[in-house]
Amino acid sequence: MRRPIRLLLRLFFIYAVLLAGCIGRASDPQPVLRLATTTSLYDCGLLDALLPDFEQAYGVRVQVIAVGTGQALKLGADGNADLLLVHAPEQEEAFMAAGHGVRREAVMHDEFVVIGPASDPAGIRGLRDVAAAFRRIAQAQAPFVSRGDESGTHLLEKRIWQNAGIEPQGEWYLSVGQGMGETLTIADEKGAYTLSDRPTYLTRWEKGLRLEILVEGDPLLDNLYSVIVIHPDKGPQIQARLAEEFVDWLLSPPVQERIGAFGRDRFGEPLFFPLHTSP
Question: CATH says 32-108+224-274 is which class?
């Protein structure tokens, strides 16, 4: 009789531990703020540098969902994110006009660059007209790797091709459907050209990326990031108050100054330029 009793006691003990764990998780007071953002911000390490301070100050856990801007906007429209940090102004304006967001604030900007192999078979080095550079790449049928993921970077790339009067197609043009980091890896392996944000490029260059910046400085390459608070009408799961607090924190002068200093110690220059620093 003792063995069945011991077995029952052991099963009761396991059940009690599991039940306690479930109750603990259900009553966990720490809320989760879902931030859908770009793979570029995730890859360069800016969020890792900033978010722990917000989490500690507000007693919240920030769940980062790193996807292309198009996917981030879809997550917001479906109520599967509380706020967005993205970089596709025209699509963001349409998102707000459709009533998916209640607040949109510009946060910072950086620059896109066209990168490629040192040999530069299309001869674009030093050009400041990015559409002209794309035309030369197409004429040379030099390999070009596109993110192909409807991200902010991909949307800008398509706009540049349109300005260049070219519909890219053929074996030289490879659409990979990947984030910025993976796209850079593929372009490096193939000795190809691609469009990248400068912070992700510099982060990968530091780790051995061989591609070089060949085109920069065109006003079309300016890259503006905005934060959007999702409309609370998307459902009771939306953490609207916390999202508003996050935006206020992100735009505060101390955090903006940290954004402006990010990367300076590693690269000798800031990776981002904040828009709300104190005078």
Answer: alpha beta
